[in-house]
Amino acid sequence: MEGLTAKVFRTYNASYTFQEQLKNTPVDGTVIEKILAYNRANREVAILCNHQRTVSKTFDNQMNRIEDKVKKFPFLIFLIF
Q1: Up-side HSE of residue 23: CA atoms within 13 Å toward CB?
Q2: How much is the average pLDDT of 5-25?
Q3: Other Cβ atoms within 10 Å of 5 Cβ, number
Q4: CB atoms < 10 A from the CB of 14, how many?
Q5: Which whole-number Å values give the CA distances from 4 to 12, 18, 48, 49, in the listed order?
Q6: CATH classification number, 6-80, choose in 1.10.10.60, 3.40.1050.10, 1.10.132.10, 3.40.50.450
């Protein structure tokens, strides 16, 4: 098909897959069940498109803050008791 780029194909494929997965949404379900069905459909599309989470730019700072809190934790327990 002329004019069909890889980007257009991926978008079509992801949209089609998402729509098909949303058909599994319970019509009479609760809001929580519908959100769960939406998240499952979204996850399937992410897997299909090979989307992956990346490490955030502030990851090192977050880890340092967590490590500092862990180091202070035994001291805090001593103060409580």
Answers
A1: 6
A2: 90
A3: 8
A4: 17
A5: 10, 20, 19, 17
A6: 1.10.132.10
| Residue 10 to residue 68: CA distance in whole angstroms | 44
Average pLDDT over residues 1-19: 88
The amino acid that residue 8 corresponds to is V
Radius of gyration of the chain (CA): 22
Helix axes 6-22, 31-48, angle to 10 degrees: 150
For position 72, what pLDDT does the model report? 75
Q: Name the residue ranges covered by the structural domains of the chain.
A: 6-80
Tell me, what's the pLDDT at 79?
A: 60
